[in-house]
Amino acid sequence: MSEAIIITPVKDSLSTTKRTVESVMKADGDFSYFIFNDFSQPETKTYLDEASAQLGFNVIHLEDITDTPSPNYKIVLQRAQEMALKEGIPLIIIESDVVISKDTVQNLLAVMNSEKNPGLVGAITTDEKGDYNFPYNFEKIKNDEIVDTSHSLSFCCTLLTVPFLKQFDFNDLAQNKDWFDVFISRQSKKIGFSNYLAKGIRVMHLPHSSRPWKNLKYTNPVLYYLKKIFLKRDRI
């Protein structure tokens, strides 16, 4: 029986998607891996179909499920929650701009099993030099601590436990939002769980690869917020 269900939502960003897939498929552990393709371009779709046949993961094309334009993170989370609860195993989200290590999955499960009342367990993100980066660059001191954090956990590489998944139904997520990591992190704390940031579990993060316009937040913040407000992008 699988120890976890791992999902990766994909929207193009083919070069980073390939790195993510390769790293997950090399990881230790007994897990089921599902990629949700959110209306990517044909080149990405072709790669996913071919790679799934060669490497043995599962690919779900959201165009076969919904007519709603991307992003469809809510649908992805709902399907993933159903699968995890059906199997009675935790859900691990690894996004398509993240490269994990061989022991990442096993280490996340170990933290889940060792810490008190976990709702979410997040791996900390680094750049290619190994320095903490977005969204965890608020952590200034490098160490291997497991922090019971009041900060929201990103879904870059995060485990959601079965007890939490049983208590919060993703069908209740807002219809008018695009991303839900902040809300779900807060909900976990609200209903009595602890959220842990595992600083000793480091994964490489290449931020905003599937949404390059978000880099405007750092280079041209005025234009970023104009796009965010008037085009209703990146609704959190």
What characteristics describe this protein?
globular, nine-stranded mixed sheet, 8 helices, alpha/beta, 9 strands, single chain, Spore Coat Polysaccharide Biosynthesis Protein SpsA, Chain A, 236 residues
Distance between the termini: 35 Å
Helix/strand/pairing category? alpha/beta
CATH architecture assignment name: Alpha-Beta Complex
CATH class: Alpha Beta
CATH-defined fold name: Spore Coat Polysaccharide Biosynthesis Protein SpsA, Chain A
Low-confidence stretches: none
How many strand elements?
9
Proportion of β residues?
Answer: 15-25%
Tell me the series of helices and strands, N- to C-terminal.
EHEHEHEEHEEEHHEHH
Average residue-wise pLDDT? 91
| Helical stretch tally | 8
Kindly give the count of domains.
Answer: 1
What is the CATH superfamily classification? Answer: Spore Coat Polysaccharide Biosynthesis Protein SpsA, Chain A
Account of the 3D structure:
There is one protein chain. With 236 residues, this protein is an alpha/beta fold. The protein has one domain: Spore Coat Polysaccharide Biosynthesis Protein SpsA, Chain A (Alpha-Beta Complex). 35% of the residues lie in helices and 22% in strands. It has 8 helices and 9 strands. Helix 1 links the parallel strand 1 and strand 2. The N and C termini lie far apart (35 Å). The model has no long low-confidence stretch (mean pLDDT 91).
